[in-house]
Amino acid sequence: MQVPFDDYAQAAGVATELVNTAPCVWNGTDKLSDVAELETFVTTHVPASWAPGLDAAVPTDDDLAATHGLRDALRTLIDSGDAQEIVRRATELTGSVGTLSLAVDDDVTRWQAITAPEAPLADQLGLLTGVGVLGVTHALGVERFRSCASPDCAGVFIDTSRNGARRYCMPGLCGNRVNVAAHRARQRAQ
């Protein structure tokens, strides 16, 4: 896997998506309960340019268990709210890095982290999400690590929006639920 540091917002988005597959977010339903769902998650959320061939790899039960561990570690990291703790934990996630390098494409130079080709899937996802977390922490600050504003949701997210005004872990779901509830309350009040 090759993760460019300048794409930290997209990498942080993968971290948010992974954390929000947990049963605590979906009222006991694990959205990453088997290897098929893990495979779908990887092909949906990890850019093919970052991980050539990763989408062709078939995850194993060991990959699934390790990814669940990564998901729990990311949840703890996002919930901590402490800059030093976030940086320490994210740095641990990037521990599987094979090399750091400069990539030059069409006269554009960028830093990237590259995992060893044989690195397990969870280590590759750890690198990806760790780079995202470290990038957001450096560029935007730890106040961008938040809990969902929906009263019925236990989700968390990393806000990489330009103005930092995101309120919901899944705006299309949680945000819509809150808006519909508010609309119905106004209708009843009239």
TrEMBL record:
Mind telling me which InterPro entries this protein's record contains? ABATE (IPR010852), ABATE_dom_sf (IPR023286), Znf_CGNR (IPR021005)
- Zinc finger CGNR domain ranges (all copies): 144-187
One Pfam family here: ABATE
Q: What is this protein called?
A: Putative RNA-binding Zn ribbon-like protein
Q: Which organism is it from?
A: Pseudonocardia sediminis
